[in-house]
Design brief:
The chain is mainly α and 118 residues long. The protein contains six helices and no strands. It is globular, with a radius of gyration of 17 Å.
Amino acid sequence: MDYLKAFLVGGLICALVQILLDKTKLMPGRVMVLLVCSGAVLGFFGLYEPFSEWAGAGAAIPLLGFGNTLWTGVKEAVDEKGFLGVFLGGFKASAAGISGALIFGYLGSLVFKPKMKE
């Protein structure tokens, strides 16, 4: 049942984003920023954690989860280091995910030999 719930919630988020892309003139980059910021705002108000516990991976995988990870890292770093934590927390919390994306993206480019579009 957890898999089904994660699939439905993640699919619903993606469907809503696709509708937003199709029905507005927002560029994909701006929509991604909107998702990350929404995840951070939901985390700030304490709404993301209950939603994530209920939805499972369906809420944690999309960009909403990345925004919440950044917010959580900043909040913890500010508690530890004060104002300097505003600048350090997001990097510390998301470093493993960003590093993994870069490393696996590079390995994928070596395997599949990407070409520039013409």
